[in-house]
Amino acid sequence: MGSFICKRSECAAVFESKHSTAKYCSRSCSNKVNVANIVGAKRPRRYSDQEILQLLSSLAMELGRTPSKRDVDTRLKLKSGAIAHHFGTFNRAIEMAGLAPNLPTPPGIADDERLVGWALRFHILSRDGFRCVYCGGAPGDGYILHIDHVTPKSRGGLTEEGNLVTACHVCNMGKGAQVIGW
Q1: Which class for 4: exposed (0-12), middle (13-18), buried (19 or more C-beta within 10 A)?
Q2: What is the pTM for the complete model shown?
Q3: The pLDDT of residue 129
Q4: Which of 9, 96, 103, 147 is deepest in the core (most CB within 10 A)?
């Protein structure tokens, strides 16, 4: 048992305690000091929903595409994990910002013989001005672009420049295996 002076500057009461490490005369004094320390500490900035969505939209405009988690983590003060926590998932935040979500490539699709190589894909996209040849949609308008076989593979179409065009996801899925003469 010893006599101590409360370390809270506003209190400075003398108190008895059996613990040699006692600093405060009561739990109340201890809590007041802890609250003062928390209030005085620098907290991370809190962003509103609108601010987060605006940051994502601005980053998309800067990149010219939908930002990935890595883009967000390296270019913004706000991290992708915080955005995911705030909106439930990162892709939900991307969708709420009016952007097309980044979807993972399904397993086994990389081995699909129907895939167009990266160089040919880029050539077709640039030839068509990075716009859907059917509706004119572009990534800046929120469209996901595909490379479409004019004559589908199922009808004997080849994967060569003359049989490939740029199509948005909606037009490509809507066209299906039809041959459209335009």
Answers
A1: middle
A2: 0.40
A3: 92
A4: 147
The sign of the dihedral angle between the CA atoms of 165, 166, 167, 169 is positive
The alpha carbon of residue 42 and the mean position of all alpha carbons in its chain are separated, in whole angstroms, by 26
CB 14 within 8 A of CB 3: yes
Residue 20 region, left (φ>0) first, then alpha (ψ -120 to 50), else beta? alpha
Tokens for 58, please give them: 């601005």
Convert the pLDDT of each residue in 141-155 to its tens digit.
888 888 888 888 888
Place of tokens 């593979």: 153
Distance (Å, rounded) from C-alpha 137 to C-alpha 143? 6
What spatial distance separates the first Cα and last Cα of the chain, rounded to whole Å? 95
Domain locations in the chain? Answer: 2-40, 49-96, 109-175
